[in-house]
Amino acid sequence: MPAEVLVVGSGNAALCAAIAAAGVGARVTVLEAGGDEHFGGNSRYTAGAMRFAYPDGDAIRALLGGCDDPRIADSDFGAYPREQFAADLKRGDPDPTLDPLQRKLVDTSYETVAWLVDAGLPVEPIYARQSFVRDGRHRFWGGLTLAARGEGEGLVQAERAIAERGGTEIRTGCRVVELLGDAERVSGVRLEGGETLRGDAVVLASGGFEADASLRAEHLGPEWRAAVVRGTPLNRGDGLRMALGIGAARAGDFSACHAVCMDVATPSFADSPIPHRARKDFRKISYPFGVMLNARGERFVDEGADFRNYTYAQYGREVLRQPGGFAWQLFDAQVTELLYAEYDMPGATRVEADRLDVLARRLEGVDADAALTTLEAYNASVRGDRPFDPTRKDGCATTGLALPKSHWALPLSEPPFCAYRVTCGVTFTYGGLRVDPDAAVLRDDGRAIPGLYAAGELVGGLFRHTYPGGSGLCAGAVFGRAAGRAAAGV
Ligand SMILES: Cc1cc2nc3c(=O)[nH]c(=O)nc-3n(C[C@H](O)[C@H](O)[C@H](O)COP(=O)(O)OP(=O)(O)OC[C@H]3O[C@@H](n4cnc5c(N)ncnc54)[C@H](O)[C@@H]3O)c2cc1C
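^ inputs. structure came back:
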């Protein structure tokens, strides 16, 4: 008899679990709480970018068989060794040792993406966001090189098609509210409305708790009630609650999350009629090329501490900590062509001026005199002794400021000057369930709960002090695949 596997959620982690379980002969049912409009969860809102370790450009080209972009011939994909991925995961962590889950993520990241590509997921280089043209070549930077064709929408639709071809049944409008069984054995689920479904194993891939304002306030702090939710309104911590309710153990830092700078005009998804695809264009993460000011007219982070891939997930929190929970990002004409396309989005909160003092007065909610003083001090502190280069950490730094800018520091000197008002958008939460490297959910005593697996945002502890951009989808694929195989009994 084939194993009966129930998968909760329909995002990247869930679909990878379904593909893997069906691939080894299990009968798989995917249960998604939302209707078709919410199919794919947060995964659908992504850029589809996946971080994985690779030794050289040939390893990238091996994944691009289905991509005929003529720029590939003129691309320098560089390398992203495992050691670098490991170091990026551990940035800011006093203990540099990878735990077993992080080790699995790093070591199997490439083979997992190759597995998806083999199964039929088309991928392509991320030219617009992760490369700059230098000496006639597209030079990639930041360890993030490929994305699913069609971004998040393309990712989940391709994964859905692969899963359905493999025989997976997909049911939407099925919110799972209870696990059948206990810490000795899980044998199915109960849906809202009372229907019960029996199975040999359940894979929870129902996301974190970022969309629930009360859980955010409880774990992240009261100010997080006001954060904009970037993704689906349906990641309300259901999987976490159900698993903890039968004795699963927690892992990771429940007070930490992935949060980015978003335009203040961004409505939370929960209240927003904006369709899936338009949403992510509200993100504002080109701050390494400018400065950020708070209501007191002060800078509050080193905007150029690192590539934005390694700071963007932390800087949303820093913005929320500022008075009023907002900031302005300022740029001059030298860098406007480097700003991501979302800066041009209609409806963005943008002001412009030909003089800095005029711009400072246009920054709503900001002490204009203090802002001008900060900008003048910043401009005077830019060393200007090295060439500006956005493809590497260029060492273009300030000198003499209490809060330095470490890279990409140019004076704001060329009009027109422009500024964008941003707030904090929460992406996903870091605290979750404790699992082993096969994605089995563990109890406090370290034993696995038979029949229960978890993958994706719901897994705790993978990300702590930092989040290297593109790791979420890759982790969901790695542990989704592991969960599917283990749930099918392989
Ligand atoms: C705007 C945005 C852009 C991003 N860009 C990237 C990127 O480019 N690269 C990257 O790696 N990461 C990115 N991320 C992070 C990424 O979205 C997550 O790491 C990843 O999608 C998580 O996948 P998942 O399968 O765990 O959860 P999700 O994709 O969120 O899926 C969870 C699903 O579970 C469903 N669900 C919840 N409760 C229940 C229940 N009780 N019963 C049944 N179903 C339930 C939800 O409706 C949802 O469909 C981005 C996130 C956002 C919001």
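The mean pLDDT is 95. The domain at 260-425 is CATH 3.90.700.10 (Flavocytochrome C3; Chain A, domain 1).
thumbs up if we can close this ticket
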